[in-house]
Amino acid sequence: MLTTLAVENYRSLRELVLPLSGLTVVTGANGSGKSSLYRALRLLADASRNGAVAALAREGGLPSTLWAGPETGTRAGSRAQGTVRRKPVALRLGFAGDEYGYALDLGLPVPGRTMFNLDPEFKREAVWSGPVLRPSALVAERSGPSVRTRIASGAWGTDRFEIRTADSMLSEFADPRACPELLVVRERIRSWRFYDHFRTDAAAPARRPAIGTRTPVLSTDGADLAAALQTIIETGRASDLASLIDAAFPGSTVSVSSQDGVLSLHFHQPGLLRPLSAAELSDGTLRYLLWVAALLTPRPPELLVLNEPETSLHPDLLPPLAALIATAAKETQLVVVSHAVVLTRALSEIAEVTTLELEKENGETKLSGQGLLDRPSWHWPAR
Question: Are 116 and 217 in the same domain?
């Protein structure tokens, strides 16, 4: 389980170190940095697939995503003044857990060596055992293009391996023979799952019948909703599915039909002479069914991150959604980004929750009430 998340110089997250638990809820006013925190987690996951550079490019390149204020922040009540940069450009992301931790440090290439001056380079990466980075706990590290790993005896291997500075050592050097710990960390990060805003418009993929295959993991667009619900039923969780539907829509049930391998969803409501198809469902009903399919997954990930799951849901559906999230938290670690007070209150009443309230101070995102002594222990690998 992840216990610490650290971000430095990503958008408004100039210097943020957060504690995580089995179920963490991130709240805050609009513009407080919740979406930036969600994106930072996705960027960490992208690094394990060598997609960090492309992800940053979609956001306008590294300069567009860097903290835009003074290096040391702005004091309360004072005006931001232009300053000469004293430190190298650095966007840093990392996490620590019960078993392993990982950190990356992205910077800009040396001017004049390439025309791709907006592409970030991996300046440093580190994987360590235990919750805190210490020299003795390192199992693999990279400096520029050079990677070294520890061998079975605990000493550093004599071989150094060269990789491109645009590539992560997680994707390019996860060799089980050279460093099995690196492979373990990579696969755990790759198992992280993210769900953002599901489409529920008239042309949404979730409203259309689709060829059915066993679907233990709902796709991010919800196109395989019927297959995912049928997979939940056939893996022995039909009663859980039924109770969660009934809690939100009393007396209602769902079923799935197949015609020549094409699966269709049917929603049965009391008082109606026929079931409703997915195309006929309201946006809120369809969205709730998508969350049920996502959270009752027969294949729980290491980490499940939800971005504003309350969107387009009636307030009456938020307590059942909270029960659904609490059920999923028994099998996987969850981070829920939300601004719905009803949802966060309902979660705190039925589950053990760590609530993190973000606030914006002089353009910088901070954790409300966190002092220097309250922050989890964290150290970045030095350049």
Answer: no
Q: Do 96 and 122 have their domain in common?
A: yes
Same domain for 230 and 179, yes or no, is: no
Q: Are 180 and 48 contained in the same domain?
A: yes
Residue 276: inside a domain: yes
Cα–Cα nearest to 310, from 288, 328, 289: 288
150, 138 Cβ separation under 8 angstroms:
yes
Report pLDDT digits (tens) over 4-38.
999 999 999 999 999 999 999 999 999 999 999 99
Q: In this structure, are 24 and 166 located in the same domain?
A: yes
Rounded Cα gap, residues 112 and 114, in angstroms: 6
Residue 20 lies in a domain: yes
CB-based burial label for 258 (10 Å; 0-12, 13-18, 19+): middle
pLDDT of residue 62: 86
What is the reported pLDDT for 262?
A: 96
Kindly state whether residues 205 and 259 are assigned to the same domain.
yes
Of 309, 339, 311, nearest in space to 34 by CA: 339
| Model confidence at 83: pLDDT above 70 | no
Angle subtended by helix axes 238-248 and 225-232, to nearest 10: 120
This model's pTM is above 0.85: yes
Which residues, including other chains, have CB under 8 Å from residue 21's CB and lie 6 or more apart? 1, 3, 352, 353, 354
Structure tokens that stand for 345 in this block: 């209150």
Question: Given the structure tokens 């350049």, which residue do they identify?
Answer: 383
Query: What average pLDDT does the segment 310-325 reach?
Result: 95
Residues 126 and 175 in one domain: yes
CB distance 275 to 266 below 8 Å = yes
Query: pLDDT of 238-293, one tens digit each?
Result: 999 999 999 999 999 999 999 999 999 999 999 999 999 999 999 999 999 999 99
**What domain range is 30 assigned to?**
2-72+87-192+357-374
Range 105-113 average pLDDT: 81
Whether residues 64 and 153 fall in one domain? yes
Distance CA 245, CA 239 (A): 10
